[in-house]
Model the fold of this input.
Amino acid sequence: MSGGGRDAGAGVLAGRRLLVCEDEFYVAVRLERALLDAGASVTLFASLAPALAHAAGDAAIDAALLDINLRGDLSFPLADALLSRGVPLMFLSGYDTATIPPLYRDVARLQKPVTLTQLTQKLDQLLHR
Done:
């Protein structure tokens, strides 16, 4: 995640509970810090199985950010579980749109790398659909 100004998203996600799935440590830490700085609470997972278990539970989730490839597993089953619960989600990935199955082409997506401003603006749009 690139800069974009330290205060670019300050408070815009206040009180929002976000599920984030990202397997690259550096990217995950930067994402978590940016989202916390924007006021969100973040539940972070680096692999598919624990994220699926969390999504299957009764945890309140306002929105989710999913990397498509999580340590060799595709996050589409997690996307299905979240969408079935009515949780808005966004793919945050280096994958090109052409590689995403047609079923998920309408899911919000940002191509890595992203700035804090891009991320918070897209999340704000997602949360207010």
In short: Helices lie at 25-37, 48-56, 76-84, 116-127. The chain has four helices and seven strands. The beta strands are 17-21, 41-45, 63-66, 69-70, 73-74, 89-93, 108-111.
